[in-house]
Amino acid sequence: MKASQFFISTLKEAPADAEIVSHKLMTRAGFIKKLGAGLYNYMPMGLRTIRKVENIVRDELNKAGCVELVMPVVQPAELWQETGRFEKMGDELLRFKDRHDRDFVIQPTAEEVVTDIARQELRSYRQLPKNFYQIQTKFRDERRPRFGIMRGREFTMKDAYSFDRDVESAGKTYDGMFAAYSRIFQRLGLQFRAVAADTGAIGGDRSHEFQVIADTGEDAIVYCPTSDYAANIELAEAVSLIAQRGAASQAMEKVTTPGKSTCGDVAELLGLPLSQTVKSLVLATDETNDKGEIVESTVWLFLVRGDHELNEVKAGKVQLPDGTGLKAGFRFATEKEIVAHFGTQPGYLGPVKLAQPVKVIADRTVANMADFVCGANDAGFHLRGVNWGRDLPEPDLIADIRNVVEGDPSPDGQGVLAIQRGIEVGHVFYLGTKYSKAMNATFLDVDGKPKHFEMGCYGIGITRILGAAIEQRHDERGIVWPEAIAPFTVVICPVGYDRSEAVKAAADELHAQLLAKGVDVILDDRGERPGAMFADWELIGVPHRVVFGDKGLKEGLAEYQGRQDAEAAKVPVTEVLNHLLSRLQIAG
Amino acid sequence: MKASQFFISTLKEAPADAEIVSHKLMTRAGFIKKLGAGLYNYMPMGLRTIRKVENIVRDELNKAGCVELVMPVVQPAELWQETGRFEKMGDELLRFKDRHDRDFVIQPTAEEVVTDIARQELRSYRQLPKNFYQIQTKFRDERRPRFGIMRGREFTMKDAYSFDRDVESAGKTYDGMFAAYSRIFQRLGLQFRAVAADTGAIGGDRSHEFQVIADTGEDAIVYCPTSDYAANIELAEAVSLIAQRGAASQAMEKVTTPGKSTCGDVAELLGLPLSQTVKSLVLATDETNDKGEIVESTVWLFLVRGDHELNEVKAGKVQLPDGTGLKAGFRFATEKEIVAHFGTQPGYLGPVKLAQPVKVIADRTVANMADFVCGANDAGFHLRGVNWGRDLPEPDLIADIRNVVEGDPSPDGQGVLAIQRGIEVGHVFYLGTKYSKAMNATFLDVDGKPKHFEMGCYGIGITRILGAAIEQRHDERGIVWPEAIAPFTVVICPVGYDRSEAVKAAADELHAQLLAKGVDVILDDRGERPGAMFADWELIGVPHRVVFGDKGLKEGLAEYQGRQDAEAAKVPVTEVLNHLLSRLQIAG
């Protein structure tokens, strides 16, 4: 293609609202153009990359036996009411009424519609397993859209939904999708990691996020460099950092700690390591009646070591031997509740001598501590030399309730954990019968009886991948696209295309030769000066560049430079094609 | 592809709400599946055809120098307010508010957004002409969605928008798009006709509809079989059917015609040809004040011959020598208005002796009539032997205000007109500066001064093409797809695939051979009985079918049948591949 037949638009400055490098570079390089908050035009340059991503995703899913369809952007509320999501989902679900005053949503996902298709179309176990996918526009009315198309409101997503006859078959489907996703991200040319993720109310261990590695990523990824272990921070298991509880060696002592309301302050004051302190966190749960009014609230005390952080996902799953627990809907306790139960204000709380009975949940590490420091439930005072059993009862529950930290032992016993940042671009998830039961979607099994489908769902954020790829691959000059998804693979930059016959001839010939080989090439015939022209293509991030100029051509030379090469290399004009083809691993 | 890896779903019965054959067949063959009123899932089979249509459209537009982008489905109201369309468009424009109570629309087209892009991005005449297009989901909240995806609410449309520096350049762009559209519909394999269409308020002669010919089409297409003339019925020019007005040969006479309120009834009663009668139609226009309240209404009398029909588009364009006219917003007069102006009720109206002064607009043919029959403005009476000049004044305006009929002379003088039915699937339209002026979209021209873009817009109803193709091409067994857009080009039907080694081997081999040649083939390995299997593929409309069975294979024979062939032909197994390739015009 020639640049004059295309549309190239680069900017020197990034827009004021661009906070992250991918948003800045995508806008400056003309990949996207803002239309409104969280709404972006996919400009011609960006659309080329989006299509390449889509085609890789489509190809691998088709090979994995998935079948493509398209479900409407606009969906009737009735189906969403069947699963309760029409009411349950927050303001992110965009709801509206049509001219006849009927309720609709703009799809953020399509579980309801695809389950409706399945319950009508998949009538027999003979038709199973079946995995439908679409690459379709999605909308989430984010309260505060940001980061360009990384967290926009309208975006393009690939969503797949599988239907199996039993758990075993669903497991095989899950594994197949996991493998397909791994191939997809390999082909995209991105460094990624598949990490185990929380399954929430579904349970089980079948949820993985595919994270593109980037220092700027929103998510913390936990992995063991010497084993296969990898999980997101919400899920990664934290073992006890103390092998077993030591014997008490100190008497419990009340110490004055005025104005020292954090573990760090107290440790410093007492000249003790932070790891000798225990942090007290007070959570609360509410019981409601049919009308949604709160009828009773319960307060819970969670203990983690002073240098650790509470993991709220893990906390939400805590269940005591008596069956009570936080379930999903907990909150932090109010100051009033804290004073009522602990007799003091936050900053000096602890598990010893509670004003009111409160269930105590200790992190595994805390449960093994001896001679520790905690609040005295008395403003301006802490206790030191505290020991379980002697100074306070054993905790009601010992559980993994903290985030892992770098250097923690890997839960598989195969090394120590490292943490890196990632951007979630894909998710595979075993749904079980959650949706098929809610919508009574059944098939006739081999015994002739109706049975609910075992389902899975599998998402890939198509447009998000562009942002993630740029966060991972950029330098001070611009984007560094992987070859597979660059908008163009090769750019030919002729210096003086409109005034030198020789330059024009050389550029046109290589352009034609590359097109004949199926290479995605662009010839920049805009007539820009060399500096501006090179800067544009480095900003845009095309992997391979060939420059023809009069001076070089007189010596029979062209210049080749890979996007990541420090310098251009002189290549005989007669060798340029072969040089490129060998770089592109295409037979000459 | 093997059928077991795909999704095939056929129905014996069409849904109750399917009124037309394309809706019935598309549903029965599993191309679409209804989700709600005017909302359809594109099922895997249908999506294959949609993608093939899209790819042909995309290929030809790229060759024509258009550049693809994608504009959001959800668009801010602000831009639509700039052109006034946010208020002016009726309930078909779906409007909604987001969580922050801001107004948005779901795009039915994208003139506003693309003009917003152009006014920011196209700054210099050097960047022109530029033609942006998208293939994107559209939504129109039709009051009464029907005909499946032919008149759905959500649909897929290709919309292109061109930006030129002057009228001459815009004309070249228009011609280029007209040519690209002609190539597109040729490649789609459809019989079509490009017809001149009304340009409404824009004026000029640059509006063409691309109509797929089908007896069941909604639109009447007028064309001259012996010349290039073609126009839609709204636009097609009707010349006078009487060369010049004859002399009066009868005296005017009032005849009693009780209960005969139509021209047909009166002609029969009087024993005269219908073409001797004149039909009186009373239209009205309203003047409104700033608040939109009607302050004055005017009544107009339109006269067409008894066997002709008023053309409302032409009527709306009528302008009298004094500058008055109907403009766009006319209506039929109320009975009260008719009585006030004519002194009688509808059915006996005429232009002779009006109770109140009314401007009279006569069709060209009517103006040349002599000794004609019309209502007497007296209930139960008509006049016969009426003559212009003698019995009533000459009309205030003589104009083309009727629909042409079969056999009318072609306005180019090259023959007579024929009429056929069509389905509009494409439209090319010169917009001029309508949008660029409303949105103040300018570029710097060669003289350094800002100038408004000359624009054009160009639509193709991607999903509508499926319906139109089926209306044109079907038989009692199902759809007859053109090869270019059939969901599969070849189907291999093995009889006993799961029990005969020979059948399986022959089918698998041909399948592999065709795939290697790049042929879009499906092997039906579902294990259906031959009758059901053949019926499915005839319903689906695959152009070429090969059948392998044990009996034939013993004699070294396979069966080939084209979708439109009356019978299957025996072909030696060794020749099947070449037989198919020669039919598909692929080198062996």
Automatic annotation (TrEMBL), chains A, B:
GO terms for biological process: prolyl-tRNA aminoacylation. SUPFAM superfamilies: Class II aaRS ABD-related (SSF52954), Class II aaRS and biotin synthetases (SSF55681), YbaK/ProRS associated domain (SSF55826). It is found in: Cytoplasm. Keywords: Aminoacyl-tRNA synthetase, ATP-binding, Cytoplasm, Ligase, Nucleotide-binding, Protein biosynthesis. It comes from the Bacteria. CDD domains: ProRS-INS, ProRS_anticodon_short, ProRS_core_prok. It holds the Pfam family tRNA_edit. It catalyses: tRNA(Pro) + L-proline + ATP = L-prolyl-tRNA(Pro) + AMP + diphosphate. GO terms for molecular function: aminoacyl-tRNA deacylase activity; ATP binding; proline-tRNA ligase activity. The keyword Protein biosynthesis applies. Residues 38-482 form the Aminoacyl-transfer RNA synthetases class-II family profile domain. Its main location: cytoplasm. GO terms for cellular component: cytosol. Its EC number is 6.1.1.15. Consists of three domains: the N-terminal catalytic domain, the editing domain and the C-terminal anticodon-binding domain. Belongs to the class-II aminoacyl-tRNA synthetase family. ProS type 1 subfamily. HAMAP family: Pro_tRNA_synth_type1 (MF_01569). Catalyzes the attachment of proline to tRNA(Pro) in a two-step reaction: proline is first activated by ATP to form Pro-AMP and then transferred to the acceptor end of tRNA(Pro). As ProRS can inadvertently accommodate and process non-cognate amino acids such as alanine and cysteine, to avoid such errors it has two additional distinct editing activities against alanine. One activity is designated as 'pretransfer' editing and involves the tRNA(Pro)-independent hydrolysis of activated Ala-AMP. Homodimer. This is Proline--tRNA ligase. It comes from Aquabacterium commune.
